[in-house]
Amino acid sequence: MQKTTTIGFIGAGNMSYALISGLLKNGFSAKNIRLSDKDEVLLSQRQVEFGVETFTDNAQLAAQCEVIILAVKPQILSNVCKEIQVHIHHQPLIISIAAGVKSNDINRWLGGTAPIIRTMPNTPALLGNGATGLVENEAVNNQQKDLAEQILSAVGQCFWVANEDLLDAVTALSGSGPAYFFLMIESMSNAGVALGLDEKMAEKLSIQTALGASMMANQNNESARQLRNKVTSKNGTTQAAIESFQDQNFEAIVSHAMRVAFNRAKEIGFELGADE
Ligand SMILES: NC(=O)c1ccc[n+]([C@@H]2O[C@H](COP(=O)([O-])OP(=O)(O)OC[C@H]3O[C@@H](n4cnc5c(N)ncnc54)[C@H](OP(=O)(O)O)[C@@H]3O)[C@@H](O)[C@H]2O)c1
């Protein structure tokens, strides 16, 4: 990344915190990072912790940044965009991390000619282990795509998709996905307790198993199916459990849940863009 690129964050909450921490760890200088929020107390905490310049005026920040990261809640994004609209004649790259809000709506709120990259990070980004889907509009060039990827890589892995429909699919998979795994951990813990294990121990066993299985799957030598087959001995305990899952149509349950999430992502996109 051009370490001299000025990057401005609008919204000083959790995601900005994660991204700024990641950028600083990756050698980016605090003097090129700007941060705005309405909350002066929060801003001064961030200023002390990171040494970045802070603003209570989003427009003032926007006017002096080459990249602007929109990190406010989706419901207030239209107001923020309208606020900065006349301060982005220098055509900064706009990166939105706001869930659900479509590029076309953001572009309309910004005046209609902005280079915009819309992203869908997930909560493990807060630990630097996120998975982020990205999609660009037609005004974005390759250099800007590289820049966005390097910024979002500070909190995990990046995956470009060809269109915004696919970003809704990313939302249904990795965006909402952490909660699916939490549900699995929760269900396995409860089932362990029902089998007589101590509650704390059952929870720790579930979490450690999820972590270990993810690490094995992440080694990339073998597919999840191959790994599963390897640990499923004929007539053994795992086979009995897997067959029980399959009898209950586990794959169909997952597939249906993700379809419902995908459809809801679309609906939310329309709701958030229906401001005029
Ligand atoms: N957290 C995640 O894991 C995650 C994952 C994927 C996507 N996202 C997206 O990332 C975005 C940020 O999420 P977050 O978790 O960081 O939210 P957050 O912690 O609520 O941070 C948003 C910040 O923006 C501030 N703000 C409100 N109005 C503002 C304004 N007009 N100008 C400037 N700042 C303003 C908020 O202040 P107040 O609190 O005082 O309102 C808050 O400090 C959201 O759009 C969310 O959909 C988050």
Automatic annotation (TrEMBL):
All copies of domain Pyrroline-5-carboxylate reductase catalytic N-terminal, residue ranges: 6-100
Keywords per UniProt: Amino-acid biosynthesis, Cytoplasm, NADP, Oxidoreductase, Proline biosynthesis
InterPro entries for this protein: 6-PGluconate_DH-like_C_sf, NAD(P)-bd_dom_sf, P5C_Rdtase_cat_N, P5CR-like_CS, P5CR_dimer, Pyrroline-COOH_reductase
Signal peptide bounds: none
Every Pyrroline-5-carboxylate reductase dimerisation domain range: 164-267
Matches recorded under Pfam families: F420_oxidored, P5CR_dimer
GO molecular function: pyrroline-5-carboxylate reductase activity
Binding site for NADP(+): I10, G11, A12, G13, N14, M15, A71, V72, K73, P74
Cellular component GO terms, alphabetical: cytoplasm
Binding positions for NADPH per the UniProt entry: N58
Entry EC no(s): 1.5.1.2
Pathway info: Amino-acid biosynthesis; L-proline biosynthesis; L-proline from L-glutamate 5-semialdehyde: step 1/1
The keyword Chaperone appears for this protein: no
Residue spans crossing the bilayer: none
BP-aspect Gene Ontology terms: L-proline biosynthetic process
Reactions the enzyme catalyzes: L-proline + NADP(+) = (S)-1-pyrroline-5-carboxylate + NADPH + 2 H(+); L-proline + NAD(+) = (S)-1-pyrroline-5-carboxylate + NADH + 2 H(+)
Compartment annotation: Cytoplasm
SUPFAM superfamilies: 6-phosphogluconate dehydrogenase C-terminal domain-like (SSF48179), NAD(P)-binding Rossmann-fold domains (SSF51735)
Top-rank EC class of the record's enzyme: oxidoreductase
Family the UniProt entry places it in: Belongs to the pyrroline-5-carboxylate reductase family.
General function of this protein: Catalyzes the reduction of 1-pyrroline-5-carboxylate (PCA) to L-proline.
HAMAP family noted in UniProt: P5C_reductase
Protein known as: Pyrroline-5-carboxylate reductase
Source organism per UniProt: Bathymodiolus thermophilus thioautotrophic gill symbiont
